[in-house]
Each structure stands twice: as C-alpha cells, then as structure tokens.
Amino acid sequence: MKPTVDEVRTADLDRLRALSPEELTQRLDALSPVELAALFDRLGDEALAALVAELDAYDAARLLRRLSRAQAADLLEEMDPDDAADVVEELRPEEARAILTEMEPADAQDVQSLLVHPPRSAGGLMTPEYVALGPDLTAEEAIARLRQVAEEAETIYYIYVTDPATNRLLGVLSLRNLVLSRPDTPIRELMITPVVKVRVDASQEEAARLLDQYHLIALPVVDAHDRLLGIITADDAADVLLEEAGEDIERLGGSQPLEEPYMRASIPHLFRKRIGWLLVLFVAEAYTGTVLRHFEETLSQAIALAFFIPLLIGTGGNVGSQTVTTLVRALAVGEVEFRDWLRVLGRELAVAGLLGAVMGLATYVRAWTLGVGIEIGPVVAVTALCVVLWAATVAAVLPLVLHKLRIDPAVVSAPFITTLVDGTGLFLYFTIARLLLHLA
Q1: Please, are residues 178 and 190 in contact by the beta-carbon 8 Å criterion?
Q2: pLDDT reading at 73 higher than 50
Q3: Span 5-116 CATH architecture
Q4: What are phi and psi of 203, to 5 degrees?
Q5: Which of 294, 383, 385, 415 has the fewest CB atoms in 10 Å of its CB?
Q6: For 97-134, b where at least 16 C-beta lie within 10 A, e where not — what string?
Q7: Residue among 317, 427, 433, 321 at smallest CA distance from 381
Q8: Superfamily per CATH, domain 132-241
C-alpha cells in the first residue's frame, strides 16, 4: 500500500532528527533554495524550527538567509525566544530588522527584549517564557491557571510567585508541592523563600554555577529591584559550562579561545589567536638562556650537570601543569576560593613532598646508571625535590591570586607555568650544584 503524505513527512523528519548537528547542517546546505522551501512546506515551520534549534546559531542564521522573510519569521516564532535571539544576533542588522518586522509583534518583542542584554550575561541567556502567579491564589486556582499557560512556558516544574503590581519576585513553588497541597491553600503559604536567583547583569558562568551548585532545573533572573525578568534553564547552563570548559582547555594549551567552530576559523584567525601567547612564552623562555649564560663557568667545571637539564626542567613543568590544571578546574566549579589559599598550598606542598621524594630517588638512580652518581647524584636528587616543591608552590598560589583579581585563572596556562619553572628551576639546579660540589 502506498504511504500517506503524513507517513512520508514523519519519515523525513525522523531521518533528519537522527543526524548530528554537523550532518544536519551539511544536509541542509546541500539543498537549493527551491528544495529548502519545499522542505519547509512539507515539514511545517514547527518541525523545522525544532531542527534548526539544534544547529549552531551561526549555521541557523545562514539557513534563515536562504528562506523568504516570511518563512524565516515563521521559523523564529516557533523557536524558544532565547534560541531565536541567538540566531538573530548572527544576522546583519538590516536582515534582523526585516525578519523581526515580519514576525508577530508579541514574538518579536520577546526576542528584542533579550537582544538588549550583553551576549555573555545572564540576561542574554534567559528566556521570558516562565510561569508566574500572584501570592493570593489558592492551590486549586494556581493549577487551573497553570493549565492555561503551560504550553507557552519553557518549564512548569517551578512556579514563581510575584507581586502582581511590581512583578517583584517573592518566592518559588515546585509543581510537586502544588499538586500535593490542599486545594484551598494559598500559594503564599506553599512558596519557598528566599529564592536562589541571579542578577540580569551577572555573567553566564555565574548563573550556570548557581544552577549546578543548587541542582536546579531553572534559575530566575532579576533586575536591581528584584523584578523577575526571565529564567535560565539547566540545558542552557550545561551549554555554557561546556563552552567555558572548552575555552579553559584552549587557554591551558597556550592559545586564546576561538569564537567560532574550528573548521570555520580562517588561517589568519587561528594565527592571531596563537601568536600572542607564543611571543609571550618566547620572551619568558629567553630567561632560560640567560640563566645558562650566567652559570656557564659552573657548567664548564662539571659537564655532567648538562645531562640532567632536560629531565629536571621537564619534571618541574609537568608538576606545575598538573597542579594548575587541577586548581583551574576546582575554581571553575566553585570548590575552592581565594580564602582557601593556605589550605590549598599546604595540600599541594604535602603532595609535592611525596612526589619530590620519589622523583629525587628516580633521578639519583638515573645518575648512577650514567656513571656520575657519586658526585652528581646527590645534586640532581636534591634539585628534583626542590624543583617539584617550587613548581607546586607557584602553580598553587598563582591561579588563586588571579581569581581574586578577577582575571581568568586559565590564563596561567600549562605552557606558561612550564616556561616559568624552566628558568627558575635551572637557577635552583646550578645554585645547589655550586653548594654541594663547591664550584665557582
């Protein structure tokens, strides 16, 4: 029997939904404008909007440019306002104005209200589709009201209680407590106070950390007068944390984060993101040559010392990288603060003492296998211990200090710590050699 139109439409939609965002982008890019318009007509704006919401905002904006203004407006109207605002931000101003003009006034207003906030702020991440009720409603009345607005809300698991006159946030009520309460109970008696909330001008990272810290499904966003403006949902917060983690990884590798996917970044853009840190590290690494030049005479008196330079500075750099990576992650998720610096330093020095003892023994054994153990062995063993302790100290304190100064601690990248420890480690090495070997 021949399949119906609805069956064909469902099959197409299921196949498209099964694709990854990258595959979906490629598939839609391959369609001509005529084919894309036909797909729009076949699937409908609601189904296509659900697919477009899965795309990167840049790719979604490119797709909108290939549709008519009316079709693009229909697509944005079906998307959540926060997702639609992200897409509109990727359009040129004249394109955005033209499409917003085609949209229903209420939908266009929702999107425009989000565009006034900086993209990296809590206001730029929130959605205005939330459920808010007055405090004098009973549980039964609240449930009836909830049925009327549930379809338009981002989530109904939290109901926010606000002052009807000012929209000031008074409390929050879970759907579970509402349903299990007596029908005649006023919701002001059921609401929870105080409410975990975030200011509209706070960073997205702060909002995401609050959601994660308190295990919330949604977080209310308020202005300076505590008026409720919108909510941030857990899925949006997860995207922020994932993006932040990616940026930290790039910084830890000694590169500035990319603002766009890697495959879309141009060669000059990749060059600009890397050359700055590379030059900084080059200048810092020049200090290593200065140290070697200063101790040239010492090195000439004990050539065997040169055998262990790569081993010792490599060990110090590796310990520093391990420590700073661990602390950047702990700072990002709020596990440590600047006030914990003494405890952090104590813990890292304790670990470094154990690591240094093991590495000192290992370097002594290495010196012995090279046949220079009697004279050089104690020098490299003591130096290994000192270098490990020093690297751990620098890598433990510096991220906390930068965090206190409101500088992203991820800028204390592994290459930077490695470079810093290289020069200072060599200074320790030759100073210890002079003392133990009685060299000039």
Answers
A1: yes
A2: yes
A3: Alpha Horseshoe (1.25)
A4: -75, 155
A5: 294
A6: eebbebbeeebbebbebbbebeeebbbbbbbbbbbbbb
A7: 433
A8: CBS-domain (3.10.580.10)
